[in-house]
Amino acid sequence: MSAVTSFWQVFYTKMEAAALETTIADCLVLVIVATASAYLYNPGKLIRQADPTIAKLFERPQLGLAGVRRVNDSRNIAEKMEETEADVVVFWGSQSGLAESLAHRLGREMIRRFKLRPLVADLSDYEPQTIALIPEGKLALFVMSTYGEGDPSDNAQEFVTWVKSRDVGASALKHIRYGAFGCGNRNYRFYNKVIRDVENCLDKAGAVPILPTGHGNEAEGTTEEVFVEWKHMLFSACKTKLGFTDHDAGYIPSVKVVQDLTAAMDDAELYRPLAAITASPMISRKAPIFCAPIKMRHTIASYSDKSRTCAHLVAGIASQRRVKYRTGDHLLIWPINPAEEVETLLHMVGLDETKDAILRIAPLDEHMALKVPSLTTAHALFSRHLEICAPVSRETIATLAAFAPTAETQSELIALSRDRDSYSEFLANNHVTLLRLLQYTQKSEGMTLWRNLPLSFMIDFLPAMKPRSYSISSSPVQSPREISLSVSVKPTPLVGKPDVLIPGLTSSFLSGGISRDEDMSRLSSIYMQVKTSSFKLPIKPAVPIIMVAAGTGIAPFRAFLQDRAHVATVGHEVGPMILFFGCQSEDDYLYKDELDSLKHGPLVDRLEVVPAFSRSPDHEKMYVNHQVEAKAEQVGQWLVAQGAAIYICGAATMATLVREVVLEAVKAETGWSMDETEAWRLDCKKSRKWHEDVWSETCK
Ligand SMILES: Cc1cc2nc3c(=O)[nH]c(=O)nc-3n(C[C@H](O)[C@H](O)[C@H](O)COP(=O)(O)O)c2cc1C
User: How far is the CA of 466 from the centre of ligand 1 (A)?
Assistant: First the structure.
């Protein structure tokens, strides 16, 4: 993100604040705004007048996640490869960590199979144009995910902008041989768009693919299998096309784990997420990662499906003076693995007696980044730093077999890992986490423990714990020192046994658990981080807004309405608002009482709420898109004639249906063609009048 963008963010904050504060504060803020406005016509001047070191703040979007940059680190990838004697560079562009972890796996495999030196590179760490300087004979791999509406992850934006630009000459990359793998989800309109765009642009610039690009599809849960197949194709291309020698040496750990008898650490240090340890508050522009208690939590919905629930949670941030949030922001939550699973896994691998011993973990290749803290304990690793509840891949099983306590277990695991179809069937009928897999082997072998399984194996094969993102449902105007969330718990049924439910890790522990009796005290030490979002109210409170939500998609709108109610209370004009809200029945009509009191109180004649009930005996069966369609004329008029802003929040499938209905409404209002209407929508996105905050329906 550039300094200019950041300036605009500050500006918007001030403008929002200007709309909300009371009279004296109004004047003060408006003075700031007026001063800021003077810069609007000349943002370059702002940058020149700012602190000359300010550019440093914006150099690395991913700093907080990727670790601290050493001052003399090069942003030239070719120089970095020379310095690290790397033969292969594995670039990653990732938002929530999957593409990043696949890139690290590729890096490890390159060492294991070909004895090559890989450099696993965060795309935001390097000047994109230096990719053209990578010497001939090296291999470049790209593992990248797609977000928003076919957009790159934050850390890949600069690279994607460059590779799509005219700056890249027709044969600028002709000496580069590459392979590409995308992480995406077919439920989204722009399925795997980023990797497709990157592939097109690399090809246009003359780069030579050594194999077809792979496309992981999260919607069908096939990313892992597709990745493994693509990886095998990559390795054969490495042998046949690049002449690499395959040494396939079995498992080689990427880290060394030793006990440190001198170190002493308290719980806060042990449980702090890696991102909080590596982020340097001096140069990171990211919000702080902090530990806060959940002060309140109560159930706010009930469903016919008793495994579902929804909770309202309030995190207290009174003691966190540096923590600020804005209406529409997200909160990242670092989950804690269930205590029972942690203890059983520790026992299973023979670490229960030494679980609290301080360990020092070091990468065997000094250029490889660690994915867990370097000083830790086995307990901290299993409870906070590794996703021990993640599904186990077929590939992991193949490697795990080498450490099996008995020959029978070993051959059973090898058989399981060899056949894709039988493993898919096994997965469809079993919730396979590492612990469950180890327990499964015990069924045939009695209580044999897996004492030979090295901790390095678990660090290498279990994904690093990643935070889950929730929309904040409170407004800082009403609750400056509290952050509330609306958390839905909807366990995923096993494909082959729909009565077996897999609970989402974070949502179920946050909301009280559906099958686990969690220790309340754990809720007092949750790590969180505010993540800014562009899902923001219009600067002027008089602008009409259309909000469309389903389920917990209502969260940011609760905050929006609190803001606008405040504006109305202090006597400012508030534009008309309509909220379309999809729920099953009155039982999950979230925040109904609050909405009613706003409608009849500060937002009287300003707010219309249109529920759509999909399973209510008292109402016609309807989804939220049907209600938008029923009011198509009003929606079209508001958007076109009155310059309303529209917001859609909820599942991606719902957003797609709503988008279609809204575009039809605008088309009918204007008489435009569908192409013209879509062009108008894209303009609205640019001018921040069309906002979507959507997610795929996988459990968090
Ligand atoms: C808010 C959101 C938007 C997404 N948009 C798209 C999209 O437009 N196209 C697509 O193929 N996948 C989309 N996805 C799916 C992600 O690409 C997928 O979850 C991927 O595995 C994430 O990889 P990462 O963890 O490396 O970021 C989206 C996911 C989320 C949460």
Answer: 15
